[in-house]
Amino acid sequence: MNWHQVPLDSIAPTAWRNGGGTTRELLAWPHPGEWTVRISVADVARSGPFSAYPGVSRWFAVLAGEGVMLDIEGARHALRPDADPVQFDGAARVHCDLPSGATQDFNLMLRGGAGKLERVRGRSERACRKGALVGAYSHEHEVSFFAVQVRIVVPPRTLAWSVMPADERIDLATQGALWFEVQP
To answer: To 5 degrees, how large is the angle CA 138–CA 42–CA 29?
Structure first.
């Protein structure tokens, strides 16, 4: 099994057209121009609307800063760095307020297929299916796991991902990370 690791600091930030922040794209899979899965970390400098992505499912989690208040089609969600990710339709009207200043946020976007993003702590086991795109990102803590009898150690601020070559159980250990799994 081939695990890829992408350190956040190895990716140059791209400024948003509206001037409200920057994004570092950690993964655009299977191809950057025609992705079905896109993972990024955003530095959000000021309050404002999210860009619309019709036909895309989105997950959002706060990594650093005091937190955000997301208004998704009139439903308000207070998110802090320890909160579970929120999932929403990419075509939804979303406004992000920064009541206590700038934040860093994790974004998972998916075109088609089924997926999930969850916050994990401690030891846990994941049953992953053949062909699934799986991975972990931790902003502050090391993540370690056993996959196909190989121990993988992921340093902080690094995305680790792989396409499962077979059905496999992954034993995961971390003080805090985000785990994703996508079935294309």
So the answer is: 75
Single residue among 91, 110, 129 that ends a domain in this structure: 110
**DSSP-derived 3-state class of residue 140:** coil
For the segment 115-170, what is each residue's pLDDT rounded down to a tens digit?
999 999 999 999 999 999 999 999 999 999 887 678 889 999 999 999 999 999 99
Token readout for 30 is 């299977």
- Are 124 and 56 in a shared domain? no
Query: Which pLDDT value is given to residue 95?
Result: 96
Q: Domain tally for the chain?
A: 2
Cα(36)–Cα(124) distance, rounded to whole angstroms? 27
User: Strand, helix or coil at 31?
Assistant: coil
> Which residue, among 40, 152, 155, has the nearest Cα to 104 in the 3D structure?
40
Return the residue matching tokens 């994941």: 126
- DSSP letter at 32? G
Beta bridge partners of 137: 159, 178
Give residue-wise pLDDT tens across range 21-48: 999 999 999 999 899 999 999 999 999 9
Domain that holds residue 11: 4-110
Cα 108 to chain centroid, rounded: 4
Specify the pLDDT at position 133.
Answer: 96
